[in-house]
Amino acid sequence: MEIILKEDIIGLGYKNDIVNVKSGYGRNYLIPYGKAVIASESAKKELAEILKQKAVKLAKIKADAEALAEKLNAVSLTIATKVSTSGNIYGSVNSLQIADELQKLGFDIDRKLIQVKDVKTVGDYVATVKVHKEVSAQIAFTVIEEGAPAVEETPAEATEA
């Protein structure tokens, strides 16, 4: 018996797959519980239309994610934190601080999407943001001592100010 699955079933297939099962399994379990429908010609045409519409939506979502990734790749952050005399940070810089800095710049990124390696000293680092399952962005950020100037002034600018 050929059926179209309406949900993922372990050991059988994924949603919208067309699979062959024994007649009793299909008639007595899959179809009555709404887990599948009989793969008639009209059901196959309907499935093809659904998959075509889904592909268009997924392509648009991926294109939006790629545009966001391009914007994020251009971003450079500066994070000020408390530092000991040896240059070590009290605690560490994590995805929460990066998400807060991105929020200030107008990017609404969930902190769970941001991956950061151990940041325990002052310096330059890179964070990875997983925007889509196939698209990620690299954000460069600099960790500086709290109270230190973000951009070093030249002596001429310091005398004019």
Verbal overview:
The protein has 161 residues and is an alpha+beta fold. Helix content is 35%, strand content 24%. The protein has two domains: 2-60, Ribosomal protein L9, N-terminal domain (Ribosomal Protein L9, domain 1), CATH 3.40.5; 67-145, Ribosomal protein L9, C-terminal domain (Ribosomal Protein L9, domain 2, Roll). The protein is built from four helices and seven strands, in the order E-E-H-E-H-E-H-E-E-E-H. A four-stranded mixed β-sheet has the order 4-7-6-5. A three-stranded antiparallel β-sheet has the order 2-1-3, covered by helices on one side. The protein is elongated. The model is unreliable at 152-161 (pLDDT under 50).
> What is the N-to-C succession of helices and strands?
EEHEHEHEEEH
Question: How many structural domains can be distinguished in the coordinates?
Answer: 2
Which percent band covers the strand fraction?
A: 15-25%
Look at the helices and sheets and give the structural class. Answer: alpha+beta
In the CATH hierarchy, the third-tier topology of the largest domain is known as: Ribosomal Protein L9, domain 2
Strand order of the largest sheet: 4-7-6-5
Q: pLDDT below 50 for ≥5 consecutive residues: which ranges? A: 152-161
Report the oligomer.
Answer: single chain
CATH superfamily of the largest domain: Ribosomal protein L9, C-terminal domain
The best one-word shape is elongated
Quick one: CATH class of the largest domain?
Answer: Alpha Beta
CATH architecture of the largest domain: Roll
Share of helix, binned = 25-40%
On the 0-100 scale, what is the average pLDDT?
87
Cα-to-Cα separation, first versus last residue: 83 Å
What's the tally of helices?
4
Number of strands: 7
The main sheet comes to: 4 strands, mixed
Cα gyration radius (Å):
26 Å
